[in-house]
Amino acid sequence: MTDLLIDLIKRFEGLRLSAYRCSAGVWTIGYGHTRCIAKGLLITEQQANTLLLQNISKTINQALVISSILAEAGENRLSAICYFIFNIGVGRYKILHSSKMC
């Protein structure tokens, strides 16, 4: 897990401590967390940070399974690709990767 990736996500996602619908209509909270979120849910900043670290760890692990060559990527490249995956979702990344677009 890289500090650069954490900083990227925090900077561009922003922190929301109450559940909201993102531009795609998905319930979201914290720094872009979208799992098990419902209207009215509130969290603390500490909970948002915990969710973010869990999401980043999961994203990096899934990215490495899909594209093992990323293990050789430098911190900047890995952070950029994982931020991209964080935003589009692992499912979409699998489709892009399997069609050789990534």
From TrEMBL:
<keyword id="KW-0929">Antimicrobial</keyword>
<keyword id="KW-0081">Bacteriolytic enzyme</keyword>
<dbReference type="InterPro" id="IPR002196">
    <property type="entry name" value="Glyco_hydro_24"/>
</dbReference>
<dbReference type="GO" id="GO:0042742">
    <property type="term" value="P:defense response to bacterium"/>
</dbReference>
<keyword id="KW-1035">Host cytoplasm</keyword>
<dbReference type="GO" id="GO:0016998">
    <property type="term" value="P:cell wall macromolecule catabolic process"/>
</dbReference>
<dbReference type="InterPro" id="IPR033907">
    <property type="entry name" value="Endolysin_autolysin"/>
</dbReference>
<dbReference type="InterPro" id="IPR023346">
    <property type="entry name" value="Lysozyme-like_dom_sf"/>
</dbReference>
<dbReference type="GO" id="GO:0031640">
    <property type="term" value="P:killing of cells of another organism"/>
</dbReference>
<dbReference type="GO" id="GO:0009253">
    <property type="term" value="P:peptidoglycan catabolic process"/>
</dbReference>
<dbReference type="InterPro" id="IPR051018">
    <property type="entry name" value="Bacteriophage_GH24"/>
</dbReference>
<protein>
    <recommendedName>
        <fullName>Lysozyme</fullName>
        <ecNumber>3.2.1.17</ecNumber>
    </recommendedName>
</protein>
<dbReference type="GO" id="GO:0003796">
    <property type="term" value="F:lysozyme activity"/>
</dbReference>
<keyword id="KW-0326">Glycosidase</keyword>
<comment type="similarity">
    <text>Belongs to the glycosyl hydrolase 24 family.</text>
</comment>
<dbReference type="Pfam" id="PF00959">
    <property type="entry name" value="Phage_lysozyme"/>
</dbReference>
<keyword id="KW-0378">Hydrolase</keyword>
